[in-house]
Amino acid sequence: MTTEVVITEGDSKRNSDYSLQLNRWFLKPIGAWPSSPSTTRLEKIVSLILNVVCFSTLILTAIPSLLVIILEDETFNFKLKTFGFVNHWFVSSFNYAVLLMHNKDIRKCVSYIEADWRTVTREEDQHVMLKNARIGRYIAAFTAIFVQSSVLCFCFVTALNTVEIRIANETRVLHVLPCAVYKKLVNVDEIPTNEFMLFLQIWSTVIANFSTIGIFSLAAVLTAHACGQLNVITLWIAEFVNETRVEKKTGGFIQIGVIVERHLRTLNFISYIEDVMNKICLLEMLRCTMDICVIGYYILSVHDYYTFIVCLLFSAVDITFIFCIIVLFFLRFRLRNGQSMIFEIWHRIL
């Protein structure tokens, strides 16, 4: 295993930023990006304010719509249509809370990635890690574009529709809300209240989307990085075996120690990923399973243009989820294959 130093500190910093850049963009606007020792007090205060504002917005927006399902005497189809958005807001609130509770674990994962890039000293290792970092970025970008565009398109298309209501001798033109609210709690028949509630629902939808996107993109980038580390270790072991066979070099135990230390470090990194993502992925799977069932019911029982748009856009979100699950299973398969290959090589060496 050669040790020629060809990677500068500036290159390592750029590569680390390249790997984590999209995650930072998705999590900072909702205050979920973990703080580091270099984070200023002002940045911590801003993050805390964002946490309170975002979480309060999600809960306050979801409660009036939840009351429609519980208290209003509406048809089952109407309540089912409302349930889709309420489900999205509440699950996103839980995911957001889990992100904040696992802030330290996420910080450790980020620190692992930054440290791994700093320790890269060979161009071959850099190419392997960059290839996997690029895969993580592609998944993150695809998730962001698909989720935000599909859900926000539904919100804006719905908001462009108007309805006329007559109260006493006055006729009012109101925007159709993306999700119905309990009018005894929030009187959306008033124009200012209607417009404020429309803004609040769209804003909370953006926050919920950022929460979901942040989770999937974080899982993709962390898993892709772990795959890259296992590939680097495999490369090191193969080079070590070839060198010892050809050159009969001494000092092999020192190189084995370096490889073992890197392998154990990668396994520890993988355990942190599982701790952060297990509960979140389970809840997302349950949420999207319910959404798919609702979509199936709409397709079979209701036939109108609005329902078609609802099914199409929520299907886009679920397709994104299915795509991400497939990719994550693929990355997990690569992780297991990488570990199996490494253990097999260790067995041959020893």
Automatic annotation (TrEMBL):
Zinc-finger keyword on record: no
Subcellular location: Cell membrane
Transmembrane segments: 48-71, 83-101, 138-160, 202-222, 280-300, 306-331
Keywords: Cell membrane, Membrane, Olfaction, Receptor, Sensory transduction, Transducer, Transmembrane, Transmembrane helix
Superkingdom per UniProt: Eukaryota
Topology versus the membrane: Multi-pass membrane protein
GO CC term, one of those recorded: plasma membrane
Molecular function in Gene Ontology: odorant binding; olfactory receptor activity
Pfam families: 7tm_6
Similarity section: Belongs to the insect chemoreceptor superfamily. Heteromeric odorant receptor channel (TC 1.A.69) family.
Protein known as: Odorant receptor
